[in-house]
Amino acid sequence: MALLVQKFGGTSVATPERMREIAEQVRFRRLQGDDVVLVVSAMGSETDELLRLASAVADRQPGREMDMLITAGERKATALVCMALHDRGVPAESLTGSQAGFITDTTHQNARILEIRPERVRAAIAEGRVPVVAGSQGVSSDRDVTFLGRGGSDTTAVALAHVLGADACELYTDVSGVFTADPRVVPRARRIERLSYDEMLEMTATGCPKPAMRSVEVARARRVRLHVRSAFTWEPGTWIGEEDPTMEQAIVSAVTHDTSEAKITVPNVPDRPGIAGTLFRRLAELDVNVDMIVQNVSADGVTDISFTVPRGQLGDSTSVAQSLAAEIGAGAVTSDATIARVSLIGAGMKTNPGVAATMFETLGAAGINIEMISTSAIRISCVVREADVVGAVSVLHDAFGLDRAGATVRP
Ligand code: ASP
Ligand code: MG
Questions:
Q1: CA distance 320 to 381
Q2: Is a pLDDT exceeding 80 seen at residue 382?
């Protein structure tokens, strides 16, 4: 007998039929002797609709009211899923984030969980009811309703699985798991059977849209086993957990890509201590999350600094770079929003040389120019032209044999 936390959201709760299917699946799991806790997020694209409504009524939206509005989407879905369960003869109880015991800080629209007091969730389980918890929400220390941010329901589910000591947290979506590449870009992409927390984190940080990055961070910190799977086929999906030291790790597990960043270059920067510190401090003060940074040291006492920032922050970041460039006598700042990043991720990279060489040769043979490179122990990323990124993902997927089950080509 297991205790499972299952999260459903978006397309998997988009229609009454989907909700009835979820109810049937819960009934079946309970017949097998398992206890189930549900976490649900808003139906279909309801969160986007609510955001659109808010910007239609006002130019500026106070955070407190936004959170009250957005969390209504989750609340509606929990009540409906509960009704579907009752209809199948499964006792159930809907709970808002606050009722489920999620205490957060006071940062509206992106609140952090401070503490979870899941008494009502535990009582429902003990009394044979299925708790249906509204995702991505809580109550702040000021007793206001708070929203955990986009994709926050994954975090709700993982955090709840942790405090309840659940055997696993199942994140249901419209695809059958985590893939070796985005299947829309590489139709030959395969579902990955298992990934380590570190690999999953690197993937979400480099463009893999699901699960939400924060939820993977919580899962890694609390050692919650995750199972990402389909609510349409119910087939086994991708397991995310501890790296198994007795098993050989895949050298390359996946190719990810991301077109959400832009590049800024400050040329002819005087090569002296403190300048990089000043530039990146000013960007940090604007809350700009800088990703890749490249600096070339030249013989004649000047250097070029290039870095990437989220495209939405390109304007502000360019202004910061321009004013610093003027102060220190650097050259004209350039910016470029037509870049993309392609990344290889694999835990086995740590112990296998040659992965970078194979990656660069493969891109070179395809005529794709590399503009920037960065690495971690289990990731290699290259910035390329945005127009080249689909080709880059595809040739790398082939070069590392990711379309073949269990295959990992030695570099
Ligand atoms: N419904 C919210 C969103 O779309 C929260 C979630 O799905 O996790 O961001
Ligand atoms: Mg969602």
A1: 26
A2: yes
